[in-house]
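Team,

Forwarding the record for the chain on the shared tracking sheet. I've put the sequence and predicted structure together so nobody has to dig through attachments.
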Amino acid sequence: MLNHSDCVRRGTGNCTTLNSAAGGLKENVPQKKMQHFHFDLWFCLTLQNWILDFGRPIVMIILPLEWFPLNKPSAGDYFHMAYNVITPFLMLKLIERSPRALPRSAVYLCIITFVMGASIHLVGDSINHRLILSGYQLHLSVRENPIIKDLKPASLIDSFELLYYYDEQLGHLMWYIPFFIILFIYFTGCFTKAKEQKKIPLSGWLLLGPSALYYWYLVTEGQITELFLITFLAMVAMVIYQQRKGLSPDSNGLFLFCSFSGTVLLVALWVVYLWNDPVLRNKYPGLIYVPEPWSYYTLHIKSH
């Protein structure tokens, strides 16, 4: 095997390749001539998102409570642990397949923050689920919940509000901000002049619906509408900027952009559907009104 000094002495052109392989992520690597649709990664990412993230609260409802005592991790907690490992791995593989060199330090920092935020959420969400089993109502604020508002001493309520902050705010921000930054960094490398690379294959169109629908769930349940819209607008700006240079999204970039476009439409329809709901309006009083699906479930489905 040639080392770096051998390459220099012999004048070969393989030094860049050797250095990039040793480093993991590509740096100073020439752009690939052909960039195929990453069906395997998009399929695995979509499938594990639906099973390990969306399916997490469902499996906790379906499986008998006797199997998972309240003082032990639930089935959903194990789903969350698997998600915290598999998702960053798949995203790193996605970055590795980018047709252009991407900033290694930024990617690593985002992955580290992502894992930390998702882990904070794991703990908060696990305790929150146990509160639900005890009568906690998701469509009400912490202080308005029947099982919380009469706690003594009253300072205990502050502790539950801190738990809510870690679960629904800090955990979500540290989880989702790096998640969308990584997707945007990847998207910036998905532009080409080759016409044959600008079409989504049939396999991609079949994944588009489930992908957009999952991101709708992520945005609404995670309460990250502003973050998602900023990311989407940045993608739109990137498309306009690259088109001025004669470049357009390749099949992978187009798949991601179409998924996000579908998500914008689904979120808009969701907001219109629940626009006049007085209870949800009371819980989500901010400028941007986007109710959580599980709040809708406990209010309109579970209670009937």
